[in-house]
Write a structure and sequence with these properties.
Layout: H1 2-17, H2 22-80, H3 93-112, H4 125-128, H5 130-161, H6 178-196, H7 206-232, H8 235-286
């Protein structure tokens, strides 16, 4: 009885010890509130800064790509503006020109995206630093596209010019199949006129384009005069007309060399300014 009585008296004490400690609960509640309160204060600035850093990395990648491709396109410009270079070998230059175009489009695509905004409780300074970089990157993309466009125009102009007044060997005596010869020369004149219409329009090439158009218009009349002189056997006129055709082509060649020198100087200056501006943007971004 005494042992049983002791066990009964001990049971309420055991139940009482299982009750939660109010002080401990209060401590955990305070810790939970502190975590909930501090988490946004820590997490929001952290993720906000990461967003700014990610966009800065995109700008940096675009700038480095532009800087690299603009520098490499100098060799393409040098070859493209060499008057002794064969235009039939220019196909490989399109790769380097295309690389700069890709860089310009990548820069334009990144610059088209607005600068992200800072999360609440976060500093806006990292994002404000990106605003002028984005604006500069947009300008770099436009400048690069203009350089690419001019390079493509020069390449196409030279490709077309290679066939201007290139009518093959011209007989100095009336051929036996004269009617066929007359038809072939008339067709050549028509082809030259169509060729001129495929010339690209570019201010740097405008003077030479005008000279080509003038020469081709003269060639149309020249064909009629030469066919007539050949038919009638007028040797002096034949010699004079052949000399004139040669002089037309020589004049165009000299004009092409002068135009290419001017284009080379202009594009070299533009590339220099682009590279200098891109390097300045990289310094501003990492400064």
């Amino acid at each position: 009885m005494t042992q049983l009585h002791r066990q009964e008296n001990a049971e309420p004490a055991s139940l009482g010890s299982a009750r939660p400690d109010p002080n401990r609960l209060m401590v955990w509640l305070i810790i939970l509130l502190v975590v909930v309160f501090l988490a946004p204060i820590v997490w929001l600035p952290f993720t906000s800064n990461r967003r700014a850093a990610a966009r800065a990395d995109e700008y940096r990648s675009a700038l480095v790509l532009l800087d690299t491709e603009a520098d490499e396109v100098r060799d393409t410009l040098r070859e493209l503006t060499d008057p002794t270079a064969d235009p039939s070998s220019f196909a490989g230059l399109l790769t380097t020109i295309g690389d700069l175009r890709d860089g310009a489009r990548a820069a334009g695509s990144v610059a088209a995206e607005p600068v992200p905004f800072a999360w609440p409780l976060s500093s806006s300074a990292p994002f404000e630093r990106l605003v002028p970089i984005r604006e500069r990157l947009e300008d770099h993309a436009v400048d690069s596209e203009m350089i690419v466009s001019t390079l493509v125009d020069v390449l196409n102009h030279r490709a077309v010019f290679a066939d201007v007044l290139a009518v093959g060997e011209i007989p100095v005596e009336a051929p036996s199949r004269f009617a066929r010869f007359r038809a072939d020369m008339a067709s050549a004149a028509e082809s030259q006129a169509a060729l001129v219409d495929s010339l690209p329009r570019n201010a740097l090439l405008a003077d030479h384009e005008a000279a080509i158009r003038s020469a081709v218009r003269r060639f149309e009349n020249w064909v009629e005069e030469y066919v007539g002189a050949l038919f009638e056997g007028r040797a002096a006129d034949i010699e004079m007309l052949l000399r004139e055709l040669t002089n037309l082509r020589v004049g165009l060649d000299l004009g092409m060399a002068a135009t290419l020198a001017s284009v080379r100087q202009d594009l070299n200056d533009r590339i220099d300014r682009l590279v200098e501006a891109v390097d300045a943007s990289l310094v501003l971004l990492d400064g």
